[in-house]
Amino acid sequence: MEREHSFQASQKAYKEQFDVWGWKKKLPKEVAQFMTEKAKKRKREAQKETLFSYGGKKWTRARAEKSVSRSKSGQDPAELHYFNTPEGVTYATPPGASPLLQGEPSGDVSGDATSPTDSFSDAASIADTSSESSKESEVPEIRLSFEGKSRQDLLDKWTFPKVHPNEIPEGSKERMLNLVLDRLTQLQGATNEETSKVAYALADHYIKTGENARADGILERHTRAHIRTLGYGHKKTRQHILHVVELLNGWGRHEDALGMLSKAKEIHASVSRKDNPIISGRRTKSATRRDKDNEKTAQPGVGGDTGTSLSGVVDLVSNKPTRATIDLALSMTRPTVRANDAAAEGVLLAIIRACRRSGQLATEHLRATADLLGFYRKWQTDDVHIDAYLQAQTTVSAILSEHIVWDLESFHGFEVIEAALEVVSCLVRCGYKTQARVLFHKIQDVGIQVFGSSDERMVWTLISIGLVYQTHCSWAEAREWFEAAFAAVLTPGWDHKDGIVQSLQRALERQHFAYITDEGRPFRTVFGVNGLTIMPLRLHME
């Protein structure tokens, strides 16, 4: 530079510019170990040589091994997360013999990186070669263990820090989570529920340590794995996206959460399911599911059309109004509600009449009522059917007051409360706020009387009510319910480290509730066909 351009700069200035360009003179210990183990693995399993690109240079296995040998404190290869490629590293199978692959570590490879443009081109070409080589046919493996570790061994390794948090050295948790995530991906697949839990926990760990970019990388890779394996339309993919949205909300990144949800909806809506199997969830599973639903719906009737099958449902519930037949009728009617089929109204009214006659089907009665109110709202005829909303209020009040023999140990009692919450949430959405508030307080009184004010089922009831107001009204109206839930979990018997306690405290500080379990994973389920509720990892009953 001084000879050709008369430019003089200090050594520090050159080093700073090299950092801007991403040039690296030496390999970091972790990167060198990754290169060594990755090259060994590819040579062992696929008989492939490997050429790495990092920091503007090309690196062979021999050079990486030399860097590792110079390191004073090597890391146990068993603790490496091989498949989480360090940032800035690309690798490929070189096209033919090259001096770089002859095991000569003394060759001056740095001469290849004479400018940031050249290094960018090299990295791009290597990345292209890597993507091509990755497409080579390989026999997929189904393993029971990976490098001597079974699935249970890995799960025990993951749960140990939660049980013994003080026995884990500083900095070891990240390596452990990466290791478990990688091995579970190999054994169970990236979309497995337990694998996802570890991925969410790792992302949450990075957020707590201030490494937001790495947390985003984990979630993005996990999202790509779901889309690539299952497709956008698959239930697991949609649930994963909701989980990521809730994680972002829990981290206070509300704009990012809304942006991700908006983008996911846009992609899902913009591409035809029939023309693109990736969007449809591979092999058009949605169409297959619709066919199965049609077959099920046609069973009670004498024909396959909707009208005939729904009339068969009416006959079924009218002649034999049992819990099993009512549940079957509701499951068969809900697809017609979503499809705006006018015939659904008659079936739901028949179910409600049958439940009213029986007097012993409180949960089913409330669920059918909630579906009917949702149907009217979907058709935008709720102002025409004011009598239905008034009758719904009477039904909820009567069932809570008279029709239930409450039992602390029975799960049925809590099902009734949840079904009542469905109905009242419909009233909130349709503007009956005053009446809904009265009924919510009645539900609260019944829950406290039956379960106790600090029981977990009661806490989740209060949170569910708060979520209805948070979703459909405002935080100001939701706040009192979250405050009541928080007061309940401050009583003896609750651990301040419990996910519910921490989520409630964070909600009151940030004026937005989002529940995350101890594993970092949010849980939320659709609240019937209207509103929203969330459920903990374990059941409400011990």
Give the helices and strands, then pairings.
Elements: H1 2-5, H2 11-21, H3 29-46, E1 51-54, E2 57-59, H4 61-70, E3 90-92, H5 116-134, E4 145-146, E5 149-150, H6 151-163, H7 172-188, H8 193-208, H9 212-230, H10 235-250, H11 254-270, H12 277-280, H13 285-298, H14 306-319, H15 323-338, H16 343-358, H17 362-378, H18 386-403, H19 411-429, H20 433-451, H21 456-472, H22 475-489, H23 499-510, E6 525-526, E7 532-533
Antiparallel strand pairs: 1-2, 1-3, 4-5, 6-7
Biased composition (Basic and acidic residues): 133-143
Biased composition (Low complexity): 118-132
Pfam families: Clr5
Low-confidence stretches: 74-83, 97-138, 272-288, 290-308, 517-542
The residue-averaged pLDDT reads 71
What fraction of residues sit in β-strands?
Answer: under 5%
Determine the fraction of residues in helical runs and give it as a percent range: 55-70%
Q: What string, H for helix and E for strand, traces the elements in order?
A: HHHEEHEHEEHHHHHHHHHHHHHHHHHHEE
How far apart, in Å, are the first and last alpha carbons? 74 Å
**Tally of domains:** 3
Alpha carbon gyration radius? 30 Å
Structural class: mainly alpha
Helical stretch tally: 23
- Read across the widest sheet, the strand sequence of neighbours is 2-1-3
* Coarse morphology: elongated
Q: Any idea of the CATH topology of the largest domain?
A: Serine Threonine Protein Phosphatase 5, Tetratricopeptide repeat
Biggest β-sheet strands, sense, barrel: 3 strands, antiparallel
- The CATH architecture classification of the largest domain is Alpha Horseshoe
Number of strands: 7
CATH class of the largest domain: Mainly Alpha
Protein name: Clr5 domain-containing protein
Pfam families: Clr5
InterPro entries: Clr5_dom, TPR-like_helical_dom_sf
Organism: Podospora aff. communis PSN243
